[in-house]
Design brief:
415 residues, Neuraminidase, 4-stranded antiparallel beta sheet, 36% strand, globular
Length: 415
Amino acid sequence: MCSGCLALALATISDCYEENYQTGDKSINTLFRWKQIDYDFPSEEEHRAALESGAFIPLNVIPLGIERWKDRVFVSTPRWKSGVPATLSALALDGITTTSSPPLQPYPSWDWHNSDSNCSTFTSVFRMNIDHCGTMWVLDSGQVDAFETPRQLCPPSLTAIDLTTDTVIVKYNIPEQFVLQNSLITNILVDSRDAQCRDLHVYIADAWRFGLIVFRASDGAFWRFSHYTFYPEPLLSNYTLHGLNYQWSDGLFGMSLGKYHQGDRPLYYHAMSSSTEFFVMTSVIRDPSRVNDSVGEFKLLGEHRGPDGQVSAAAVDRNGVMFYNLISRDSIGCWNTRKPYLESNLGVAAHDDRSLVFPNDLRIDHDVPQYVWVITNRLPMFQFNLINPEEYNYRVMFLDPAKAVQGTVCDSDTI
């Protein structure tokens, strides 16, 4: 789908759906929404059989990761509970005004999702990131039933898929020496600078054992950094969302890349259970010889985000504006990276206490113009079995980053 065609289609969606958040020139819109997730089974008979056997339990399926490439949006559905028949799916953007709650199409095919014991296929996909060459890098935890009786069926892995041909290029298991006991390998970020993606590295966050795993595509090598800035803040590990109080102690989680300048760029990062942002230059973490010689390179970025400043995912657009999910505020925050990281320079690009309940994942596509893509999923309610199947619980949302920051402290015109 051409960029102009997509923009027209998204504008049509904005006019059709009633739950848009719009204030002045700022807007975030819903592309898809579901009360419960359904799948596009090969036949109605197989759909019915999966429901009857418990292979498909709609209430146990939650969308987690989001990515977009050209005419498709990709969504992950980890196997945190039983009854999740497929863990990575695609949704076509052609004809997106036909239904707001389309069934998920398992990707790249059903064959990649039908076996619990075949570690050559997908087990439980958490998140994905697409490089500018059109390869989607898929992070698979290898674990199922995390919210029931956890089982580690396969090693955590990284899979590369060519989105032009929809074929798997290669799959790497993360070496066991870099996956600690009770590791939660939860997020992924691709870093490539040249036109052919030959210098590609992947950064992988371990939220429960507080580590940063680095992968180098040129030779398939992995290494791991540990640092005290990857840990959660105790007081920020206590959450309250729409009256639900819960405790999570998630460490390193959100990662985003700053501007490439003079052969280097910063990696911004934070623990989820934290209101603090840090950074490290990527020249440090791309060098395996620095694993035990870099403690002073991981630095505080600036001020805290406040008492409810927990953030899940973040990304930086071409204009140097970071967008991030404020999971306790039903909001998308923003920060212009050309300004100091001060609380007074942190803005709100979107807020909605109905459609933005727990914005979990956030990505920015490679198109011109770019769009920010967000998935909201009420994860705490899902974890504690409080999802109401009669309400819209899950959404794929989008915003125009340039319009979203107009008139805020994140706007380039305010520098």
